[in-house]
Amino acid sequence: MDHPLRAGRTITQPTGYRAFIPAPLPPDPALQVDGPLLALLSQAERDLGRLDALSTLLPNPDLFVAMYVRHEAVLSSQIEGTQSTLEDVLAFESELVQDSTPKDVEEVVNYIRAMNHGLARLAELPLSLRLLREIHAELMQGVRGGDKSPGEFRSSQNWIGGAGSTLRNAAFIPPPPHELMKALGDLERFLHDSREQLPLLVRCALAHAQFETIHPFLDGNGRVGRLLITLMLCAEGALSRPLLYLSLFLKTHRAEYYDRLTAIRSQGHWEQWVAFFLRGVSQTARAATATARSIMQMREAHRLAVVQNARALALLDRLMVQPNVSAPRAAQWLDCSFPTATKLLIDFESRGWLREVTGFGRNRQWRYQPYLDLFHQEALDGSMSAVLAPAQVTGSAFSGLPPAPST
Question: Active site at which residues (predicted)?
């Protein structure tokens, strides 16, 4: 059933444009978490629980978290138009930037820093507007959009639309500046006061959609809004490690994602949005679980092959944190001589574990390619799932936002 005013209302502003003013969460009439939606919720909670349980069994969970954070940073940034790959980010971190390295790699590196900052700050600061502003400041520092008030909520009107759009013909206009802090205050209260009312995953779905509707920054809203999901899961203990990120699912189902957000605002279709979100949680958690298991199996196989060599074992562990390596770096990691490190790297290359990536005779760099391939396979499997088994669309048909919305 449609409830056009359930999510808020569009109000004509003094200068003539029409902006959307969101209603406070939770939705009214209340969200109906029953029937098929309840089944989706139960499945998503089970899938998330399996992922979290597996993360506690990993020999050293922090070895994997660093790569998952990079992987998410690449995917989330690609939604906003960046071209950088996981390999580009690793090369940048290894100071191996080439002429072919995309200039936007620093945006991805900023996302990694912003994510790590937010996760670290959860230990001393509740999930709050203050924390979101800190994350935004890290995200936008010194990159495209860095001149658009990093770390500050906007004081001017923004909008979403195609190239050349204006306030007169925008696809969507968020609340005007004078309504912004009330909407954000309502969202912050929902984050803190709704824990007994609704299941966590449902609250994550509602909070993410509301944040994107409010669009509180001049740039970077999509990335901060996606990070908000992981922060909520970690802050409330559903994940002991930040291993669930929905960017791949949202990128793969991008058209439906924007359609669902539009339908919330125009028709009050909160239930359909939550169902879409829960499908994403299930699919993403299952994929992350499979990848983690594959990593564990690969790690064990590689360790067994060199179990008598303490330096080789130490190098394998370091490669899971930083898969790019040179002989000087390996020598520093292992506290050994350059020839010893070089011999070990060449041995790993002969086993098919390392790939030389420079083509140089000197100053060579290697990459732990089988490890990276597992993350690429997860992305490929996620993309293929949309082709082989597209998400079911329920409810009324509606038009989506343009393909290149504001970030």
Answer: 215
pTM of the model: 0.88
Annotated binding residues: 80, 215, 219-226, 257-258
Encode pLDDT of 300-349 as tens digits. 999 999 999 999 999 999 998 889 999 999 999 999 999 999 999 999 99
Around Cβ 171, how many Cβ atoms within 10 Å? 17
Annotated catalytic residue 215: yes
Identical topology for domains 8-291 and 294-379: no
What DSSP character marks residue 370?
H
Sign of torsion over alpha carbons 170, 176, 182, 184: positive
Cα 177 to Cα 9: distance, rounded to the nearest angstrom: 16
Domain 8-291 class, CATH top level: mainly alpha
Provide the 10 A C-beta neighbour count for residue 369.
15
The two structure tokens encoding residue 13: 């502003």
Identify the segments of the chain with pLDDT beneath 50. 386-407
pLDDT for 393? 30
Say if CB 268 and CB 7 are below 8 A apart.
Answer: yes
Are 368 and 319 within 8 A, CB to CB? yes
Number of other CB atoms surrounding residue 344 within 10 Å? 23
CATH topology of domain 294-379: Arc Repressor Mutant, subunit A (1.10.10)
Binding residues for ATP: 80, 215, 219-226, 257-258
The domain spans of the chain are 8-291, 294-379
Q: List the beta bridge partners of residue 365.
A: 326
Q: Which candidate, 65, 64, 114, 66, places its Cα nearest to that of 93?
A: 66
Q: Given 71, 215, 253, 302, which residue is catalytic?
A: 215
Helix, strand, coil proportions of the chain in percent (round to 5)?
A: 60, 5, 35
Closest CA to 23 of 228, 258, 187, 157: 187
Hey, is 242 helix, strand or coil? coil
